[in-house]
Amino acid sequence: MAEAGGTQRHYRAPCPGCGAPVEFRSAQSVYAVCPYCQSTVVRRGEQLARVGKMAELFEDFSPLQLFAAGRLQDQPFTLVGRLQYAYAGGRWTEWIAQLDGERQGTLSEDNGSYVFSLPYALTQEAPPADALRVGMTTALNGQSYTVASNEEAALLSAQGELPRLPEMGQPFRVVELRNDKGLVLSLEYGSQPPTAWLGRQVALADLQLTGLRSESGKEEQGRAFNCPNCGAPVTAQLESSKSVTCGSCKSLIDLSAGIGAELKYAVQDEPVKPLIALGSTGRLEGSDWQVVGFQHRMGRSPGEDEQFGWSEYLLYNRQKGFCFLVDAEDGWSLVRPTTGAPVVSGGGASARYLGTTYRQQYSYDAETTYVAGEFYWRVERGQRTSNRDYAGPKGAVLSLERADKELTWSLGNRLDGAAVAQAFKLDARKDQFKRADAAPLSAASGLGCGTIILIVVVVIILLLILSTCSGGSGSSGSSWRSTGGSYGGYSSGGGHK
């Protein structure tokens, strides 16, 4: 049955599996999932054929749902389908957006925020997936990109109408390329030739969305299970969580394979108490953020024996996604992963992003030493990354964090410790939030004791030599100033699709 509706015809036919009506709102949709029996059906003219059964969706706390409508640059769209994928680091979701006319786009998760993408026609053949190594730069359609990730993914489940349907559980390569203009180019090698999608970061509030899932309609039971180490009950409140800690024994539990799978865990025998309690809500930059995760990390600069540490709080807002509140010895900062990838030049001496140049300050290796709460990526104790921090105007810091298969950039801005205490209603403990400013001599706190002693000894020897050479006569004087700084103040907390 076909119905005329504005500029778009609606197709409806009985499901071959259960007889319930299955509707196609988009002429571009070839597949659909029956909402009653989860049969996967393909449209052939005005007839439907059953081609399999879809696995059940992992329900989440996302405000998005089918038939939510919005506007992208004044063009209306409706969410008509949802795809859930799995990769080594966990899962991510793509929503199929039907725009007026003949176009469909995707609204997808990206490092805790969202990217809206449209099909992109390549003017040249896409390079083989194996040729696109993480960190390399390449040009496509006259634009320069950095390869940000190269992962194997597989379709887990789907809902609604779908323009394409990768074979369930069959792995295929997904390569993401990003550039300094904030563009994200995704190449999906599940078909030949690979499909390409080009997108930009969007804020849900800017899409003027209606028909969102209401707060009151959200299921509150979460995902409950017993800790595989001590047996105590554990509840993961956010469906997007790939890791969670047991409140009783503090074990770190891997949820990336799903709760029904055999749960892997790691015992954490050296608990660190966060200064801001998990579950706390604070108002920063005009929005309410809830602390859902905490991790403590240690860093070491190449060739140095001494380590330095800092803490990261994972914050969540339903409309704005995730960000990081970073507590380092030289101050507090609010950090968000960037959508694009800066252009690095001068052998890594500088990075340029969205028209601003940042100069490299520090290079160091980082390791996660303690984890509490929930995380939207699979975080592990002992997880290691290579990091670089670049300083920009007005205290802004651009940071690169690199793992084996993925690199992530983030942008952070300074916060006053007293403002952080006030935001989380901890004014009575505001003295605990005070941090040293990154003044020239404050760097000593970031240096090892042995290094400080050595510097002092060298300075004393130099002064003795100078006083001997001057023979006690009037000296022109000399001054010495450390040019170092404290490290580890900014980190993206990991890059995850």
TrEMBL record:
UniProt biased composition (Low complexity): 471-484
Annotated spans, Disordered: 471-497
Keyword hit for Transmembrane helix: yes
Residues annotated as domain DUF4178: 70-202, 278-416
Family annotation (Pfam families): DUF4178 (PF13785)
Keywords (A to Z) from UniProt: Membrane, Transmembrane, Transmembrane helix
Sequence intervals crossing the membrane: 443-466
Compositional bias ranges of the Gly residues kind: 485-497
The protein's name in its UniProt record: Uncharacterized protein DUF4178
